[in-house]
Amino acid sequence: MSEHGIRAAAVAVLGKNWEHDHTVPSRRLYPHQWSWDSAFTAVGWAHVDPERARLELESLLGAQWADGRVPQIAFDPGTARDAYAPGPDFWRSAQVPGAPVRETSGIVQPPLHAVAAWEVFRADPGPGRAFLERVYSGLRSQHEYLRRERADGDLAVIVHPWESGQDNCPSWDAELAGVAPPADALDGYQRRDLDHADPADRPTDRDYAAYIHLAGRYRDHGYRDADALPDHSFVVTDPLFNALLGWSDEALARIADELGLLAQQHRDDARRVRDALLTELWDADAGHFFARGRHSGRTVEYAVGGLAPLVLDLPADVVDALVRGIRGPRFALDDRGPLPSYDRTAPGFDPTRYWRGAAWVNTSWLVLRGLERHGRHDEADTLRAALLTAVGDGFFEYYDPLTGTGRGSPEFSWSAALVLDVLARVPGGVAR
């Protein structure tokens, strides 16, 4: 498919998934608004309809909690309550003081939203400045929540695999080993994901039981981190989550500058995140950033999230080591498809199972932006070509990194949106 054809198809996917003030990830499996999906999708909308990009982020921030958390899911009140599980009746946000009127989940996702807001502003600066004035306070509060309630020194922790966005990545296995869900954890629970996807691609029932158990315990503490975290059995410091926190700190500084506000605190926050990632999660011998569990310690699993700190201002030797890993056998960069989510040489590598090897457009896009930042043009060109090759047969949720075959939900929003950004950033590209 030509670049013009890819662009037209991507715009059509976003149009089909638009729902009055936000974009659903896919009509088939994800009928509500997801947090980091909306950030990715806003980046794409900015190139073709900036007003929808602004609505995307503002509708999500309209579901922000009083404590500053931006929820993983904001439920669409016009959609059946049991259309997705776990749905609003599981999360019970309406019973929690400080939760918004719109029902939501009680956990979060990676904080990419300030980056998205800045990209949306850059695409349409005229009305964009008023947009920045409207969203800045909420974005700042999001970061303050993470630093106040989820602090691990200068980094932030996640309390559920779903908060990472990389649901059943092997990086969480060691910490999940300490989670002991009851035998009846899934009793009365219908896995809607299995209605729409190959069970061989999805997390196992054992994993899902752990996910539901963890979410239920957090809910039963009223989502109060001070009460829940002391005895919580899953507390992880994730390199991708924190890389996006630091990257968004940089974006908040730019937004503050644009609004004539004090920006130095945001720059200092970004620097502290970068330095803490290098001090605490970087392994120079391995050439990779690794997650760390509070109970399990550092987990030496080569996941694509360990490449995400490339979006930050890293030392040259760290960039060189990460690029060697990208080009090496673990991630095997070539122009045939996105980067695998997990080490291709590992015994547990599975090219079709969620986050255990399957290749995703969004994480490859993050790596691409990092490569561009550090002037690694050869690798960036290869990865850009790989993304365009993958979507030539459709905008799928994820792809088999060995064959390039699309898997999961078709007409997936962030795959379409981020390819629009890829096209727009190519000199002379069709979306410019």
UniProtKB/TrEMBL annotation:
Keywords tagged on the record: Glycosidase, Hydrolase
- Where does the record place the Mannosylglycerate hydrolase MGH1-like glycoside hydrolase domain? 30-415
Q: What is this protein called?
A: Mannosylglycerate hydrolase MGH1-like glycoside hydrolase domain-containing protein
- Which lineage is the organism of this entry classified under, starting from the top rank? Bacteria, Bacillati, Actinomycetota, Actinomycetes, Pseudonocardiales
Coiled coil spans: none
The answer to whether UniProt assigns keyword Hydrolase to this entry is yes
Keyword Hydrolase assigned to the entry: answer is yes
Which InterPro entries does this chain map to? 6-hairpin_glycosidase_sf (IPR008928), 6hp_glycosidase-like_sf (IPR012341), Glycoside_hydrolase_63 (IPR004888), MGH1-like_GH (IPR054491)
Q: Which family does it belong to?
A: Belongs to the glycosyl hydrolase 63 family.
> Which Pfam families does this UniProt record tie to the protein?
MGH1-like_GH
Output the superkingdom of the source species.
Answer: Bacteria
Where does this protein come from, organism-wise? Answer: Pseudonocardia nematodicida
Where exactly are the transmembrane stretches of this chain? Answer: none
